Amino acid sequence: MKLTEIARKTIEGYIVNKEFQLDEQVKSKYSQHQACFVTLTKDNNLRGCIGSLEAHQPLWKDVQSNSIHAAFNDIRFLPLSKEELKQIKIEVSVLSVPRKLEYKNPLDLLNKINSDMGLILTYDNSSATFLPQVWKDLPDKVQFLEHLSRKARLNKDAWKTAEFQHYTIDAEKE
Q: Which residues span the domain enclosing 150?
């Protein structure tokens, strides 16, 4: 069973108020503690995206939890309806362990980042992340970092003095 199948069956079960149970073989296959994001799209537009930055439970459990949250608890969207379920596409992104990104100044940071990286920006008590897929919509490095700063509810130039971690993903799409 693929991760996207786990996500879809979990959402389907939640909609009809019947918990989807995984068999022990699938649980064993995805038992390693890993973090993931579940992204829902409808007509190629974002419909929900929730995830974990740090591994804190078995991957199968993280997929199930983030699937429910992406479908029903992403504050940017109304909860997913039963009718919409057939229209959504699901992507599961499994994250590597985030690593600190050392840089000397904004230009050094711009030289070190690339479109294979997911980035976590931290500044004071604010933080935000963009998965590597966001580079498709924001290929300009400065714009990418400005949008990430705004996502963290900061000034667009906060990235110039923020702390960063980076990660890669292994993504699976329907």
A: 99-168
